[in-house]
Amino acid sequence: MSTSTPTNEAAKFAIPPAGNYAVIVAIFCGLLLISNVGATKLIEFGPIITDGGVFLFPLVYIVGDILSEVYGFKAARKAILLGFGLSILAALTFWLVQISPPAADWENQEAFEAVIGFVPRIVLASVAGFLVGQLLNAYVLVKIKEKTREKALWLRLLGSSFVGELADTIVFCTIAFYGIITGGEFWNYVIIGFVYKTVVEIVLLPVTYRVIAAVKKREPTYPIHTPEPEPIAG
User: Fold this and answer.
1) What is the mean pLDDT of residues 17-44?
2) How many domains does the chain have?
3) CATH number of the domain residue 201 falls in
4) Residue 186 included in any domain
5) 3-state SS, residue 182
6) How many Cβ atoms sit within 10 Å of the Cβ of residue 23?
7) Which of 3, 177, 196, 203 has its CA 20 to 30 A from that of 43?
């Protein structure tokens, strides 16, 4: 008797989860990794000293807010730990590339090391600041939501970001540049970085509102899709 698999049998695949969680986590991690590479360069606009992460890193917190607001602390923590792990993997990969012997006709080894080479202090600062800041951001947002429910979204968005970004900025700047940037320049770097990120959050608040509303609307398991039980007639 033949035991061969029928040729008309369909190929088998797992069914991906419904909703937008996976896409949002991918965006979250992508923004984080791009920002970490950009942060290797210090930039200066007049009296303002910051780093290249200034362009995208505020969006990491906005996407983190969306994860916490829609999916809760556990789901946000899962995304944060994934981003944390990928950041470490990226740093180790750059380190392996850095210590690998360059090809004989490749003359950019020193430039590579100077721009994107493995710098333990910067790597530690980046991952520590991200982990502390994002976990605090998610925790504070969820705790405020437990009190406000679906009301006062602005309060939990700004309140959580204030706490998270302040912690992130202080941890990153202290580990990465304390002793390298000294005195007033150091505090300029800390304060300007924090204020800038907070201002970006405020400016983009209307956009964040709309994105959160759209994600909630498209999540079949979000509680607003579940009708409230009708009261039992007494």
Assistant:
1) 89
2) 1
3) 1.10.1760
4) yes
5) coil
6) 10
7) 203
